[in-house]
Each structure stands twice: as C-alpha cells, then as structure tokens.
Write a structure and sequence with these properties.
This protein is of the alpha+beta class. Helices cover 35% and strands 15% of the residues. It has 2 domains: 66 residues, Orthogonal Bundle (Arc Repressor Mutant, subunit A); 38 residues, no CATH class. It has a 3-stranded antiparallel β-sheet with strand order 1-3-2. β2 and β3 form a beta hairpin. α1 packs across α3 and α2 crosses α3. The radius of gyration is 20 Å and the shape is elongated. It starts with a helix and ends in an 11-residue tail after the last helix. Bound molecules: iron/sulfur cluster.
C-alpha cells in the first residue's frame, strides 16, 4: 500500500498532466487505484494546500468534481525572450536600486507583450 504522501504526489502529477482539461475526481481515483473515500480525501488535501482547484460538474447523472492544477510549470520557451537575459545592466539591477525591474521600460514592454495570447506563458 503506497504511503499517503506518495499518493498525494502521484495525484498531483496526474492532475498536472491533464493541463487545462483537468480530470474528473472519479477518473483520478481509478488512475491511482484508490477507493472513492481515499480519492476524495486526497483531492481535498491538495485543494487545502492550494495546489489544485475543484469545480463541480455533472457526469453520468451524478455530481462530481473536475480537478485542475493551480500552478502550471512554465515552458522555457515562454521566458527565453525576457530582456533580462541579454541585459548589460543585470549585475546592478535590484529592487529599490538605481536600475530596477520596477523602473525598467524594457521589462514593462516585455510584460505587456505577454497579453498577446500567442506569447502568453505556455503550460507544460
Ligand atoms: S529588469 Fe530591466 S534593467 Fe533589470 S535586468 Fe531586466 S532588462 Fe535589465
């Protein structure tokens, strides 16, 4: 019998793998080979830890929950063109300093460019 934390970790990995589609709680139980009581407990624990969110959904005539991961790992491509990567001022750039991210026009332009859905950070 897997340890409780192992099941939680596996559950989180499975939910993360489903991306924006999410997964029905009952399907998660099946993938974990857990019973409904353990499956509910695990998904509740992950929600309390703020790692997933649960949205109520009708499936096959019964109410259940669809689970979504709250934090998506970034793909490296989504941040490769951040201006800081090639900035000559990076050694002296710090919060509250003469050169700082809060005052940087290049960083501001880059952040604003992310509002274009084509360039928004992609989830793995
Ligand atoms: S925030 Fe601006 S100044 Fe600072 S490292 Fe990035 S690009 Fe350079």
């Amino acid at each position: 019998m897997p340890r409780r934390n192992d099941l939680e970790n596996r559950a989180l990995q499975i939910v993360m793998g489903k991306g924006s589609e999410g997964i029905l709680q009952s399907d998660l139980w099946r993938e974990l080979k857990a019973n409904s009581r353990d499956g509910s407990r695990i998904s509740l624990k992950l929600e309390v830890k703020n790692l997933i969110k649960r949205e109520k959904e009708m499936s096959n005539g019964r109410w259940t929950y669809r689970l979504f991961v709250k934090r998506h790992p970034l793909e490296i491509d989504s941040v490769l063109d951040i201006p800081c990567v090639t900035c000559p001022d990076i050694p002296k750039c710090e919060a509250g300093g003469e050169v700082s991210p809060a005052l940087c026009e290049n960083l501001t332009h880059w952040l604003l460019s992310l509002t274009d859905t084509e360039k928004s950070p992609k989830v793995a």
